[in-house]
Write a structure and sequence with these properties.
The chain is built from four helices and three strands. By secondary structure, the protein is an alpha+beta fold. α1 packs across α4 and α2 (27-37) crosses α3. It is elongated, with a radius of gyration of 18 Å. The mean pLDDT is 89.
């Protein structure tokens, strides 16, 4: 399913920060994990993830560190900064409230439709 860009605008940074809280990852690895852990809902291309990572890095929320990979090539691994961890916590609280509030509306709509159909 393809989502509108505006819907993803706030979700993607939070999802990336959440994954980086678990462990450091390089860009392509993030793409794979986002897809895997969301059952393909957040299936993104590298052309979406890398600009996002650069933006998060510019804000001081993540930090890129070059490391040699097992294949001998250097890869830029991203890690969550203290500032990023604080931002993630704030965003998770806001997300929880948003999901709760929207969930109430959706539940009312679904219940109302069920009553109207019965």
């Amino acid at each position: 399913m393809e989502f509108e860009r505006e819907l993803l605008k706030g979700v993607l940074p939070m999802a990336v920060l959440k994954l980086l809280r678990r462990r450091n990852m390089y860009g392509y690895e993030l793409v794979q994990e986002l897809s895997r852990q969301t059952d393909g809902v957040l299936e993104l291309g590298q052309s979406t993830v890398y600009p996002l990572l650069y933006n998060l890095e510019a804000q001081g929320l993540v930090e890129g560190v070059w490391q040699a990979a097992q294949n001998g090539r250097d890869r830029k691994y991203y890690q969550l900064t203290d500032k990023g961890a604080k931002r993630l916590e704030r965003d998770l609280v806001q997300w929880g409230e948003l999901v709760r509030g929207v969930g109430q509306i959706i539940t009312e709509v679904i219940s109302g439709q069920s009553s109207a159909i019965s």
